[in-house]
Each structure stands twice: as structure tokens, then as C-alpha cells.
Design goal:
By secondary structure, the chain is mainly α. It has two domains: 86 residues, no CATH class; 141 residues, Orthogonal Bundle (Helix Hairpins). The protein is rod-shaped and about 135 Å long.
């Protein structure tokens, strides 16, 4: 019977549409994959950390140069003061003043040399941190690139499957009589891929209500389209 063939074709059509919609949803999820977004955020955070560390290294390196210049200045000042102290005929008051200046200069030099050492240690630590972050960035970039590549491969696979399903969908549609297809299309706007509901143990596969025996028997004959009295879906008795 033609209706029997129509219903069988409609079932296939609906299953194809379900598969198509599932692939469309998967494709959409892949385009907005949270895992990739998290990887991108981690990479951006690491790049920000690297920029901050490099900026700090650059600033400290400039400070270190200025500190070294000031150290040389204080060393030279100490030498000049010592020369003044060893001059002949230097008065006691003058020697006392020179000694005070020399002591102050040496203290200033000692403090500055400690600062130079601390700055050097800090720069060394920051450079180690810089290398760690660079290594981390490379790993994150590699991980992100692999994730994106896998996603693109999967999207290409889905696109191919969508094309095949679309072709199959159009082919099956041609097997269904226009009248039946028109009824299905009208109800599809409301029920989507559950428009054709399978009768399973005398219940509607759409709303799951128990069906009267005469409805089940009528659907089983497949001489006319039978709908569920509760939800309005087209009922299909699969053999």
C-alpha cells in the first residue's frame, strides 16, 4: 500500500532530520567550545605575565646601570678624599672633616653596593621566571593549536555528513506522496523531529499517553493517517 510506503519513508525522513539536527548542534558547540576558550584565556594570561616580567626586567636593568655609575662615582669620591687626607700640611680640623666625608661616602657606597647585589639577584630571578613563562606559552600555544586543528577536522567531517544527509533527505522526500508530505510539513512546525510518533506498547511515542485500542488498530491498518487524540502527532505502527 502507498500509505505504508509513505509512513516508512516519513520515518526515515524524520530519522535523517534528527541526525542532521544533531550534527548541526554539535557543529555549533564546536564553534563555541569552552575548552578552547579556556586555553585561549590561559595563553592570554601567560602572555600578560611575560610582558609584566619583561617590563620589570627592563626597568631593573636601567636602574642597575645607574647604580653602577653611582658606585663608580662614590669610589672615585672616596679616592679623592683619601688623597686630600694624605696631603702635606693638612690641618687637624680639615682632616677631621675629610674623614667624616670619607666615612659617609663609604657607608653610602656600601649601601649602594648591597642594592646593586639585590637588584642583580632580582633580575636573575625574573629572567628564570621569564624562561619558565616562555616555556609555558609554547606548551599552551601547541596545545591550543592542536585543539583548534582537531576541531577543524571534526567540523569538516560534520560538514561532509550534513551534505550527505541533506542529499538523502531530498531523495526520501521524493518517495513520499505530496498529500502526506504536506500534512507532515504542517505538523512539523509544531513537533519537529517527533512529528511522526511510533506506537510502542500501545502508547504514543510523542506524549507517552496510553492509546485506545481502536486507534492502535486503525494505525496498524495503514489505510489512512491516524493522529494521537491527545497530542495530535501522526501515529506510526512499525512492523
Amino acid at each position: 500500500m502507498q500509505l505504508d510506503k509513505d509512513l516508512e519513508a516519513l520515518w526515515k525522513l524524520q530519522e535523517v532530520r534528527k541526525a542532521y539536527d544533531n550534527f548541526v548542534n554539535e557543529r555549533s558547540r564546536l564553534k563555541n567550545l569552552s575548552d578552547i576558550k579556556i586555553k585561549e584565556e590561559k595563553l592570554a594570561s601567560a602572555e600578560k605575565d611575560l610582558a609584566e616580567v619583561q617590563e620589570r626586567i627592563e626597568l631593573l636593568s636601567k636602574n642597575a646601570k645607574n647604580q653602577e655609575i653611582n658606585c663608580e662615582r662614590l669610589i672615585q669620591k672616596s679616592r679623592d678624599l683619601e688623597k686630600e687626607m694624605f696631603k702635606e700640611n693638612a690641618k687637624a680640623k680639615e682632616l677631621s672633616s675629610l674623614q667624616q666625608q670619607l666615612d659617609h661616602t663609604k657607608k653610602e657606597l656600601d649601601a649602594l653596593e648591597n642594592t646593586v647585589i639585590n637588584t642583580a639577584y632580582e633580575i636573575e630571578g625574573l629572567k628564570e621566571r621569564e624562561e619558565e613563562i616562555k616555556k609555558k606559552i609554547k606548551e599552551l600555544e601547541s596545545d591550543l593549536a592542536a585543539a583548534k586543528a582537531n576541531r577543524e577536522v571534526r567540523i569538516q567531517e560534520i560538514d561532509e555528513q550534513l551534505k550527505e544527509l541533506q542529499e538523502e533527505y531530498e531523495r526520501i522526500k521524493k518517495e513520499i506522496s505530496p498529500e502526506v508530505l504536506k500534512v507532515y510539513a504542517r505538523k512539523f512546525n509544531q513537533y519537529k523531529t517527533t512529528t511522526l510518533a511510533e506506537i510502542n506498547k500501545k502508547t504514543c511515542g510523542g506524549c507517552h499517553i496510553h492509546l485506545p485500542i481502536y486507534i492502535v488498530m486503525e494505525a496498524k491498518k495503514k489505510t489512512s493517517l491516524v493522529t494521537c487524540e491527545n497530542c495530535g502527532r501522526i501515529l506510526y505502527y512499525r512492523t
